[in-house]
Amino acid sequence: MRLVLPALTFAAMLAMTPAAPAADKKDTRVYEMRVYYAAPGKLDALQARFRDHTVKLFEKHGMTNVGYFVPVGDNKDEKLVYFLSYPSKEARDKSWATFQQDPDWKQALADSEKAGKLVKKVEVKFLTPTDYSPVLKVAAGTDDRVFELRTYTATKGNLAGLDARFRDHTIKLFEKHGMTNVVYWHLLPDQKGADVTLVYLLAHKSPEAAKASFGAFGQDPDWVAARKASEEKAGGSLTEKGGVLSEFLKPTDYSPLK
User: Domain coordinates of the chain in residue numbers?
Assistant: First the structure.
């Protein structure tokens, strides 16, 4: 005798089917890189203001603290480099407006500047992740790391070719040689240099480890071949002369990203 089972509805069949693991969603956030140059002798006071007040108030007003860094070694310019993220540029502008009007911020600002202003100059860039960037995970590393902030200026018309070389070759070869790809960004389109600029963060065990990794990377036959092919296609270098800048950064004690 043949056993006849009741027909399952399509919805019931879907409910019984295990869900496929969700792929990493593309990061659509807007990032802001802010570089503060402290007034002479004021970097410690500036950091205290961030540690005790600013980072909490940023979060209160809908901003995500990503990372706070100072240069490795001699920080003669008394720099603080930090990154925030937002759902959109419009959300960013709204958050900053409410933050600046917050009575707690006004009080912290006034208290910290009784002996003079703490910041003499601010530089700001707005960033958007490239299509090949890992999704930036704001978390502490498993050990002490240094970060390398690298900024490339592409030759005219060659940013897409530079991106293709990173997408298809460079990021894999970085990993092969012990470097951690943290995030890759372009400038938002309305900014000066958006058509030629690539900004990215790598993580290393130390500056010495970075030097060794880049030495091995530069000699890798796969890299040599990828570089040669990309430059033949472009008719020359993909980056301007002097258009590769590098700075090693160490996280502050209050940085979420370490």
Answer: 30-251
Q: What is the pLDDT of residues 74-108, one digit of tens each?
A: 999 999 999 999 999 999 999 999 999 999 999 99
DSSP for residue 21: P
C-alpha angle 154-158-160 in degrees, rounded to nearest 5: 105
> If we measure between CA atoms, which residue out of 150, 154, 141 comes closest to residue 174?
150
What's the angle, vertex CA 112, arms to CA 107 and CA 114, rounded to 5?
A: 100
- H or E stretch including 248? strand 239-251
Please tell me the pTM assigned to this model.
0.88
Q: Which of 107, 86, 104, 82 is nearest to 96 (CA)?
A: 86
Half-sphere exposure of 218 (CA within 13 A, CB side): 6
What CATH topology corresponds to 30-251?
Answer: Alpha-Beta Plaits (3.30.70)
